[in-house]
Amino acid sequence: MRIKLNSSLMTTSKIMGVGLLLAVSGCSTLSSLNPFASNPSTRNQPAALKEVKPTATVRTIWSERVGKADQYSFAPAVVGSDVFTAAADGTIMRINAATGRSVWSINAGTKLTAGVGSDGDTIVVAGEKGVVLAFDGNGKQRWKAQASSEVLSTPAVGQGVVVVRSLDNRVVALDAETGTRKWFLQRTAPALTLRTSPGITIVNSTAFVGLAGGRLLAVMLNNGAPRWEVAVGDPRGTTELERIADISGSPVVSGRDVCAVAYQGRVACFDAASGTPRWAKPLSSDVGVAVDERFVYAADERGGLSAFARDGGTSIWRNTQLANRRLSTPISSSRLVAVGDYQGYIHFFSKEDGSLAARISTDGSPILAAPASAGANFIFQTQSGTLVAIAAE
């Protein structure tokens, strides 16, 4: 996770803490993705992994090499029977979710910074200097558009519209067939923000947009008119660093609820139609939440994994066995919830009591991207470019 300074905040300091890398605008981003590598004596050492007495069976169904993510994060997108994925070198792949077989693989012709967004018919990625590229279901380029600044958030595709958020807090809607701009809206960017990717979720006629500054915005897809806007994190403190309160990951819409989490903020659920708060609990996270019929799951910046009752927000359990291991966005199945960590391990917990149920390794590199579900399987993508399908029983 990195932090971006807007040009209005004039400083050349570089700070490392709680796994965050500080990057001054106009300067190169620190390349290390292991926040502990440069200071092995830090008090925030990652917890050593202890032997697990399995209460669940997990196994790798298939594995496919995609390409390295470099300093970016590429989350797999599952649509129907296919997984769409990308890499920093411009690789875009369509893979059969059941077998792992590549349906097609192309190169976008430019280095990529975000992706993949897809509804199955339109595949959208973001490239260097804010270029937005769309391809059809067969991998043929459909159009190219230009965002106002760098894009790190995965573009969202739905209802014939592509919604893109750039680092300057501008949200743009493009026609999925032509790339023509339909509308845009601008929110003021804080002086200091996480150099990360607050997500966008499209459900029916609404786009739910996570923003820097801890705001969650619901807008109408047809014209960009705001339906409502709420605070998930409120900037507090006397310094700009203390006041960072950005939305982390993508908002999750389930039934009538939309849930989200913010760095140095809260985990909260709202009425998706009106934005009326349902509940909120203090929590700081730099990754997104998972939601199922009963619980909301959040991994905090200290490596704790928590489950909250979806109805009311009561704390159900919190597991701290993975302290400081830089956990990914959680994902849940029928009886387990899983997270990846900075060494490429995937950990599985009981949804009922939070006990560690199983563990499986990947390629040893960090898992920063949000995982996805393909039927009964979990799909994870590592920073070194391994895409894996995991079955958990």
TrEMBL record:
Residue ranges annotated for the Pyrrolo-quinoline quinone repeat domain, each copy included: 89-319
InterPro entries cross-referenced by the UniProt entry: BamB, PQQ_b-propeller_rpt, PQQ_rpt_dom, Quinoprotein_ADH-like_sf, WD40/YVTN_repeat-like_dom_sf
Subcellular location: Cell outer membrane
Record keywords: Cell outer membrane, Lipoprotein, Membrane, Palmitate, Signal
Coarse class of the protein's main subcellular location: membrane
Spans traversing the lipid bilayer: none
Membrane topology summary: Lipid-anchor
Pfam families: PQQ_2
Assembly mode: Part of the Bam complex.
Summary of the function given for this chain in its UniProt record: Part of the outer membrane protein assembly complex, which is involved in assembly and insertion of beta-barrel proteins into the outer membrane.
Family designation: Belongs to the BamB family.
Name used for this protein in its record: Outer membrane protein assembly factor BamB
Native species: Herminiimonas aquatilis
Classification lineage: Bacteria, Pseudomonadati, Pseudomonadota, Betaproteobacteria, Burkholderiales
The encoding gene: bamB
